[in-house]
Amino acid sequence: MTHVDLQIPVNDNFSFNECLWFLNRNFDDCMHTVYTGSVRKVLLIDQLPVLLEISMSRQHLRVQVLRGEINDQTEPFIRNYITEWFNPDEDIAAFYKLLIRHKSLAYMPEAFKGLRLIGIPDLFEALAWSIIGQQINLPFAYRVKRRFVEKYGSSILHDDVLYHIFPSCETVAKLNPDDLCEMQFSRRNAEYIIGLADAFVRGEISKQQLAGLSDFISRQKALTNIRGIGIWTANYALMKSLKEPSCIPYGDAGLLNALMNHNIIREKSDSKEMNTFFKKFPGWESYLVFYLWRSLAPTEKEKILDTTVRQTV
C-alpha cells in the first residue's frame, strides 16, 4: 500500500516556522531544502530513496511523499525519523517557566516561541558532522560537508533539484584519508571519520547499542572511546541524535559567546560559573544550549534582546 500524505501531531508549544528558520539560517545545508512553508528531505528506506515534503497543517505536520513509495512497514520509520528531527511532541512549557525566571533569558519564550531542538536522527551523520566541524568556522564546515556529501553520498532528482543523502558508513570506511584531504579535510579529521565509519561497519557502535546503555555517562564513555571523539563531539551527538536532555558541549565557541552575551559568565574559562548556571535548568540543559545557540543570530522580532540584556547589567 502506498501512502502519499501522513499526519504527525504536534504539541501546543510548537512553531514550524521557527524550526524552518533554524533549518534555513544561511549555512547552505545540503541535507535538506527549505521552501516557503515547507522543507524537503530525502530518506533512504530499504536502500531506496524517498523524497518527502514536510509542512504544517493545523495541529499536525503534514508529510507528503513526492518521489518513491512507502508501505505499512516503512511508514513507521518515516514517522519516527520526523519526530526525532522536529521533536514536535515535546512539552516545553516547564522549560519556558525556567527561562522566564532568569532575567537575561526571559525574552526567549516569546522571541523563539515554539522552537524545538532540531535533531540529526542518524547517529553516524551526527558524529561525522561534528568531526567535520571541529576547529573550523561554520560556513567553512558546511562547504566541506557539501563536497563530502555530493561526492560520496547518493541523491535523487526532482523538478530539476538534487536532494542528497548522507554518505553511508560502508562507503566512508573504504576511503583513504587522501580522498578527504582533497576536499580540505585535515588529515587528522579524515582519519577520524574513516575510523568512525569502520567502527559502525564492524558493529562496535550503533544508535541502538548506545540507546541500550544504562545511563548518560555510559553512553558518553562509549563514544569517547572512539578515536577522534571527545566530550564536545560526544555531547553534541547525544543531544542531536539520542535527544539526551542534559548535554552541555563544553568548550563550544558559540555556547561560550552566547553565555557572555547574556552576562552569565565574564570569562570563557569560567567553568564554575557556567556549571552553577546550568544547574538551574535540570533536565533542560540540551534545550538551553540550543536556545543559546539560537540567540546568536537574532531576527527582527528578537531585537528586544539588546534592550533586555542591557537592562539586567
Protein model, in words:
- There is one protein chain.
- With 313 residues, the chain is an alpha+beta fold.
- Among the domains are: 5-89, DNA-3-methyladenine glycosylase AlkA, N-terminal domain (TATA-Binding Protein, 2-Layer Sandwich), CATH 3.30.310; 123-241, Endonuclease III, domain 1.
- Helix content is 46%, strand content 14%.
- The chain is globular.
What's the oligomerization state? single chain
The rough form would be described as globular
Helix-strand pattern? EHEEEEHHHHHEEHHHHHHHHHH
Structural class: alpha+beta
Helix content: 40-55%
Do you know the CATH topology of the domain at 123-241? Endonuclease III, domain 1
Radius of gyration, taken over Cα atoms and rounded to an integer in Å:
20 Å
CATH domain class of the domain at 123-241: Mainly Alpha
Main sheet attributes: strand count, strand direction, barrel closure: 5 strands, antiparallel
Task: Indicate the mean pLDDT.
Answer: 91
CATH architecture of the domain at 123-241: Orthogonal Bundle
Q: In CATH, what is the homologous superfamily of the domain at 123-241?
A: Hypothetical protein, domain 2
Low-pLDDT segments:
300-313
Terminal Cα separation, in Å?
Answer: 61 Å
Strand content: 5-15%
Number of extended strands: 7
Q: Spatial order of the strands in the main sheet? A: 1-5-4-3-2
- Output the number of helix runs: 16
